[in-house]
Design goal:
11 helices, seven-stranded mixed beta sheet, about 20% strand, 17 strands, alpha+beta
Length: about 450
């Protein structure tokens, strides 16, 4: 049952880049951006300790936040713009920024329990939704970013964001957040190491993917077949969210067990036993065991999929600057049968499947890319398959606005996506935080499988 709390809106305002500081711009979507038209907005929450009353926040901190956001939007101005979605084919969606554009900023106050919200134990998902800003996507001009800052008097702050992934991947969003935090903590004198690059010509479409994806988008849009992850039929009434930490020592024990078991059985080793692969493999198996407990309607011979995002910049055979603004990621989808995944060697099977997909993407990120949209559609809102949001490589906890590192980070969009979120661990060096939203009874079962599963590795 959700803890009772009250949110009071203190202010609604618009924040724009400084006058005449950003040029009117039209950014065409590349083939890296177009698949994200099928996804609902990302909704990260950044919680911070802040031991001051609301009056101090509104008089001292809020002006800094607004000014630093404006200065940041001067460089990341497409985030203040809109996505244009003409109803007529074959018009291509594009990102438009005009001088009068802005980011909607909401300031609120909550009497909720910050320590409760930032804990790892299961909490009702409905306790978090009042901290997420609204982002209207039912217009022809669709805003790309909205922000809400909620004060917990004398306790903390929550910076909640909603942004459409079509405008920015995790790397670009992280660059935006780090820049905003730096302007806020350092002031106007902060100097960026490198400015965002808006040169779309660096993205080389050697495989004709733009035409393939646009055709798929228009076909589904015209036939109204598009079901975004936010529209999936998910019952949130009894759902809870929790965070599980897989530490470096846990990863070492899982890896050692995999190697020993493969050597005992004269089996080849999985080819890529990275911390990411080891964590994902273990979580994938735990989730499937939960499904088995609740007799999910599926056959043991059915394929089970694990979908994740793969960074593209280091995998491309053409140069793209690290400061490139936009999406530059590929889609990976691993497959194994349910029977093999829930067997005694399930973690090995999962690690082999995920590691093989990673290596395939390393060699040819565009292999099978023409099926990215259709391959991933099966994952949206699915109780049977698993999808990953986020990355533990972004150091999000280092986003410091002048109040120290974030106390907790939550990704709210996973509730309806039926995804898991991955972030670097705040407190366990080398560890990975796994965010999960499940019905209460299934979360209890997952906790048991997770805890006992880690203890079982010698």
């Amino acid at each position: 049952m959700a803890k009772s709390s009250t949110i009071k809106v203190l202010e609604h305002c618009h924040v724009s880049p400084p006058l005449n500081s950003a040029p009117p711009t039209s950014l065409p979507l590349t083939f890296f951006d177009i698949p994200w038209l099928f996804f609902s907005p990302s909704q990260p929450l950044f919680f911070y300790e802040y031991p001051y009353p609301t009056s101090h926040f509104t008089s001292t901190t809020l002006p800094k936040l607004k000014n630093s956001l404006s200065l940041t939007l001067q460089h990341f101005y497409p985030l203040a713009g809109n996505l244009t979605m003409s109803p007529f084919e074959p018009c291509k969606p594009e990102i438009i920024y005009s001088q009068a554009d802005f980011v909607s900023l909401t300031i609120a106050e909550s009497d909720g329990d910050l320590n409760h919200l930032t804990s790892n134990y299961p909490r009702d998902v409905n306790e978090f939704y009042s901290l997420v800003p609204q982002l209207d996507d039912k217009q022809v001009l669709i805003p790309l970013l909205a922000i809400q800052v909620t004060v917990f008097p004398k306790t903390g702050l929550c910076i909640g964001l909603a942004y459409h992934h079509v405008v920015a991947d995790g790397r670009t969003f992280n660059n935006f957040m780090k820049t905003w935090a730096s302007f806020c903590s350092v002031g106007d004198s902060f100097s960026m190491k490198s400015l965002p690059s808006y040169d779309r010509k660096v993205i080389v479409d050697a495989h004709g993917l733009e035409g393939i994806f646009l055709k798929e988008w228009w076909r589904r849009k015209s036939s109204k077949e598009i079901v975004r992850s936010s529209e999936a039929n998910v019952d949130l009434s009894n759902m809870v969210r929790a965070t599980f930490v897989v530490g470096l020592s846990d990863m070492i024990r899982i890896k050692t067990w995999i190697i020993d078991e493969c050597n005992k059985g004269n089996k080849s080793l999985p080819i890529h036993l990275s911390p990411y692969v080891l964590t994902c493999a273990f979580i994938w198996v735990c989730l499937l065991k939960v499904q088995e407990c609740f007799n999910e309607k599926c056959c043991v011979e059915d394929p089970n999929y694990f979908g994740f995002i793969a960074g593209g910049i280091t995998r491309l055979d053409f140069p793209v600057p690290a400061s490139y603004f936009g999406n530059c990621v590929g889609f990976g989808r691993s497959m194994a049968t349910r029977k093999d995944l829930i067997g005694e060697d399930g973690v090995i099977v999962a690690a082999r499947a995920i590691g093989s997909t990673v290596k395939t993407l390393d060699k040819a990120i565009f292999g099978g890319a023409d099926k990215w949209i259709s391959d991933w559609e099966v994952l949206f809102g699915s109780e049977l398959h698993v999808m990953v949001a986020g990355s533990p490589k972004l150091d999000l906890y280092e986003t410091d606005f002048g109040w120290g590192r974030a106390k907790k980070i939550e990704e709210i969009s996973i509730d309806c996506m039926r995804a898991i979120s991955l972030t670097e661990s705040r407190d366990v060096e080398g560890g990975i935080e796994v965010g999960l939203a499940l019905p209460k009874t299934k979360m209890d079962a997952f906790t048991t499988f997770f805890t006992h599963g880690l203890k079982a590795f010698p």
